[in-house]
Amino acid sequence: MFVGHYGVSFASKSVDRSIPLWVLFIAVQLLDVLWAPFVLLGIEKVRIEPGITASNPLDLYYMPYTHSLVAALLWSAVAFGIYRLVASRGRNRPALLVGAAVFSHWVLDLLVHRPDLPLYDDTAKVGLGLWNFPALALGLEIALLFGGMWMYFRTGEERRTAMAVFGAIMVGIQAYIFFGPPPVSDKAAAATALAAYFVFALVIGMLERRRVDAPIIVLALFFGCAPTSSSVKPAVDAPTHFLVREPDGRVVEPAPGGCRNPMIDPRDGAALILIRSSGGRGDYQVPVARYGVRRGELLRIECGTGLVVGIVKR
Asked: 122 near 64, Cβ under 8 Å?
């Protein structure tokens, strides 16, 4: 889940208006805000596996420190303690709301994730799998976001139009995530997500202080956190998937465990030469003009499945 989490931010703000919206925007995404640098540092793991669910290509196979039930409870307690100490002047109610906002992330993720959320450590994984039903999952995100926003508007917020435009832009980004091309790599997915969380928090903070109008929101979002996968072009006339050649000469189906060299076009046996690899994807040299690849470009392939990602610059 992505933009649906922000519905909890608006709902929490409607209960206690002393909490800044930007704080609540960070709180509801805190588990992911921590997940992103953990992935960048190699502490937690994710693979890009198009098709693993119908709307999300992320194989979140190891994230015990941010997305286990035990970890979510601990981070929620940390957020409660820090906010009570630093910002709520010893009052429990706003600090409890911040802590609950943090924990709501795990609860809502439970609805959409495949069984990749561990209850503790890296075991007993759960998830109801709504990501396999894109229309239902997107509808839930929209309902949560605008339901929370409606609760907030009822408290007397004056900048309803700008807030609603902001929400519509977030929904557009969510739709792109669901139906657009997959991220270029695991690291790119983590870095883009982290940038988006802080851009969203910055924009909502400026909106709450009445320092930005709707057109500036558009610029901030589209230029501040444009998806990194836009540099990948679609391939032309490529096979359904590529095969790999074993050292003994046999041509077999690809399997997880690293990028193999060469990849083989099953239609005519043409060999693709591995140039570089990262995050379970390999960039392969092919004859110029084949698959739509031009001079100075490479064909990017999911190494574990042989599926084509697209064409990238060399």
From this structure: yes
